Amino acid sequence: MSDLEQDPQESVCGGLADVATEPVNELLIGRDVVLGGTRGMKVTRTLPNRDIRMVGAWCFLDHYGPEKATMSVAPHPHTGLQTVSWLVEGEVLHRDSVGSEQLIRPGQLNLMTAGRAISHAEVSPSDGDLHGVQLWVALPSAHREVAPAFEHHPVLPELTAPGVRVTVLMGELGGVVSPARTYSPLVGAEVTFDADGEILLPLRPDFEYAALALSGAVRVDETELAPGPLLYLGTGRSGLDLRAERPGRVLLLGGEPFEEQIVMWWNFVGRSHEEITRFRREWMESDEFGTVIGVNDAPLPAPELPTVAMKPRGRRR
């Protein structure tokens, strides 16, 4: 999915300053963004947030639905990141410039590694209900020039407890390892609850974590969490208690605090204003990002750059 805002603001993320060095329970209120104009699909964006811009290498989080909606995103570019697509309801067809064409359904993972340059398009084949999340993972400098690639994982490993199923999308949790390719220590998991489900998840004290309710109401470390805000949990935890009186879902994100500072603008992750400027120029003037076959829509033009240089400002505003 693209960041379709017509006036995207730069976000400078990462670095170890202001990482919580102990467990916290900080609710981060997202903002509503309409993708594709006033009649487009509404999403709630909780990363980057006004207060916390990253959780580990996770640098972007949009939650959309459930609603009857049509996703139609024309070809657009990415650099320096991985896109992670996860559905609760509906279907989305992915096409990209390395030749991939893949329909994703609930419970399946689409993972696209942009590396030095890729473009892709996404469309929902019908006007049915859509509900899911789109996430980005920042690539560390040692790997951000890797060749672009795409993975589809129709089956993912799980942890179970009475009334609870934990699907490990990325990384490792409780000894269960996802087959998805990662480039920094992190974890992403969906926890699905039946009524009165409860689980104590094993965590790594050196990771920072956050949780997002996708449906229902889930109690996360004594905080009642409903869909909307992101609950930032800090570091220093060896376990996390989750329980739900009624059926619900929660997304758990975590990772080793990202040491590097990155600059995010539109669909690019770079390290400086000059680099972002180059990415934009290459998208608009060259074929560096390849061609998405099978799509009739014209590629999205890049918005105008900010009039002031994008500079690092740390993790918090």
UniProtKB/TrEMBL annotation:
Belongs to the pirin family. It comes from Streptosporangium lutulentum. Residues 190-285 form the Pirin C-terminal domain. PANTHER family: PIRIN, PIRIN-RELATED. This is Redox-sensitive bicupin YhaK (Pirin superfamily). Residues 41-137 form the Pirin N-terminal domain. Pfam families: Pirin, Pirin_C.
